[in-house]
């Protein structure tokens, strides 16, 4: 077998260190450490002859070391050393190779004074305050009537009875979820924090009370522990602190959502007073009944006042007045409408007379005639008429046809022609009017102008020609 490796990193499965080598290596490494000062809490103390063996525990976490110290150093302490005491000691770490354990060999041991503990608590208080752990805006309101109350207290303690009895005296139906833990000593912080986490996760617990019935200052130090303070600050359920009395104020009172001066005060705060609430409800119902009675009486008086008014004493009176007004308005509307219709009728009659006076028929009725070609065109000029052309003559009552016997050229009258205005029986004459804008017209005896484009009055014929009736 070859030589052993010098360093731990050089060991392999084929070349391992024996246990004695590792123990010696650890012992050599520990022996190189210097002496140091360490603080902790004494949880076990066993004097044996000239040496005392004790267990030194960290007050915040579950860690501990074995310590051996000479009885001379213990006896030199100003106060007797007891379990639970906070001490600071000067020690040298040593490693016991036979059993593989690490322990401290103390040279000096001193108790931690109350002043030192208070100074440390004050420093922690300032640190947490700077972080905002104690701020009022982060505190949660206490529920008016919780479903279930979580209670963290000592085992069979008077504080538990104070909280439960006072709460049930005020509200008999209150229910509790109780966790009994150590409220002083080395395990107080761990057990209280574990119970707090458990109750905070309970679905029916609406508020948590941490109660302890007072004690010495050093006994209340766990409730100023940083781990417990931060656990309470992180809880989602409102927490009530009921630690000690009015003169005691651990840091738990500052971080809790509400501080009770005593456990009894916490029992009164956690639930309402059933008798007081019943009295308030009764008083409220009485006030409501009185208010409703007064309101009904006021409305009744108002209704009587309304019914006494004339309009409600004779409701039809207003209808009669409005009916008279409506009838008057209807009469005025009828008169106005009738007047408008009469004026409109007169206007229509006047327009009809104007239309009749201006119509061609009216002109024909006055003795005029309209001469038309065969195609319906009006004869406007004598030169438009041909010899023998069949013309249509329209008079007031009917029409007839004629044929011209001349072409409209002026010819001297015959000697034996009858005088102007006289025609042989059975003969007809076509004449041309001399007025400007007149058309050819026919006349028997006296010549008349046409209705279209002719002037009114008697036309004077300039040419006469005999024609035979068609």
UniProtKB/TrEMBL annotation:
Q: What is this enzyme's catalytic activity, as reactions?
A: Exonucleolytic cleavage in either 5'- to 3'- or 3'- to 5'-direction to yield nucleoside 5'-phosphates
For this UniProt entry, what's an example GO CC term?
cytoplasm
Spans traversing the lipid bilayer = none
Q: Name one GO biological process term.
A: DNA catabolic process
Q: Which residues form the Exonuclease VII large subunit C-terminal domain?
A: 133-350
Q: Locations of Low complexity compositional bias?
A: 426-462
Which EC number(s) does UniProt give? 3.1.11.6
Superkingdom of origin organism: Bacteria
Protein name in the entry: Exodeoxyribonuclease 7 large subunit
**Which HAMAP family does this one have?**
Exonuc_7_L (MF_00378)
Domain (OB-fold nucleic acid binding) spans: 18-110
Where does the protein end up? Cytoplasm
